[in-house]
Structure formats: C-alpha cells, structure tokens
C-alpha cells in the first residue's frame, strides 16, 4: 500500500485560480468552517478541522480548498498540517476572505 505522502500535494499558483473556483470553495458550509478554524489557529491537522463527514468527503473538501488556493498542506511525521494561504489569497482576491470569515462568524 502506498503512503499518503507518496503523491506530492498540488498547490496552484494563485494567478491560475479563477474567481469562480474561489467562490465555489467558500460557498460550502463545511469548507467555510474549515477555513474559519484555520484563520483562528493555523497549522492544525486534518483531523482537528475535519468536518463531520466521511473520510472521502473530507478529502474532497481539502482538495477543493487546495485547488482554490486557500489551503497550504504539508506533512509532519504522521500528520498532515494545514494553513491558509492568506497573504497570497488576499492579494489575488482582496476582501473576499474577510467577507467569507465574517459570514462564518454570523
């Protein structure tokens, strides 16, 4: 069985991320909650911010957030850690993440 770290994680250049992908990533309540958790405390493991869904569904949520340029992931030992690509995302889509986080707090 291959290790989950055998395949490198894809982190797209923000210039390649369309606005529609950013909106799609932020419109789902589970993904928005994950983003809000990372805004409060970066560097959390997948298990710490995983929504109450099946593992395949959670993996899809992580993949969508990565593809939208919101999420940076890296492996540390047996854990996969996560952080927002806040500075890059804010430079590409000014104010969008702030609006989404304000909505998550409501």
Structure described in brief:
The chain is built from 6 helices and 3 strands. With 106 residues, the protein is α+β, with helices and mostly antiparallel strands.
What does this protein structure show overall?
It comes from Amycolatopsis eburnea. This is ArsR family transcriptional regulator. Pfam families: HTH_20. InterPro entries: ArsR-like_HTH, HTH_ArsR_DNA-bd_dom, WH-like_DNA-bd_sf, WH_DNA-bd_sf. This protein is an alpha+beta fold and 106 residues long. The chain has one domain (14-105): Arc Repressor Mutant, subunit A. Helix content is 52%, strand content 13%. The chain has six helices and three strands, in the order ααβααββαα. Strands 1-3-2 form a three-stranded antiparallel β-sheet. β2 and β3 form a beta hairpin. The termini are far apart. The mean pLDDT is 91.
Order of strands side by side in the largest beta sheet?
1-3-2
Let me know the number of strands.
3
CATH class: Mainly Alpha
The N- to C-terminal Cα distance equals 43 Å
What average pLDDT do the residues reach? 91
Low-confidence stretches: none
Which term fits the overall shape?
A: globular
State the CATH topology.
Answer: Arc Repressor Mutant, subunit A
Domain HTH arsR-type: 21-98
Protein name: ArsR family transcriptional regulator
InterPro entries: ArsR-like_HTH, HTH_ArsR_DNA-bd_dom, WH-like_DNA-bd_sf, WH_DNA-bd_sf
Organism: Amycolatopsis eburnea
């Amino acid at each position: 069985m291959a290790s989950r770290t055998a395949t490198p994680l894809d982190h797209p250049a923000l210039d390649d991320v369309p606005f529609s992908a950013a909106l799609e990533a932020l419109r789902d309540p589970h993904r928005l909650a994950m983003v809000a958790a990372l805004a409060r405390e970066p560097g959390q493991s997948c298990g710490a911010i995983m929504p109450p869904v099946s593992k395949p569904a959670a993996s899809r949520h992580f993949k969508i957030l990565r593809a939208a340029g919101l999420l940076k992931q890296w492996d540390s030992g047996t854990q996969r850690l996560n952080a927002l690509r806040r500075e890059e995302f804010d430079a590409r889509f000014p104010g969008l993440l702030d609006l989404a986080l304000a909505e998550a707090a409501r």
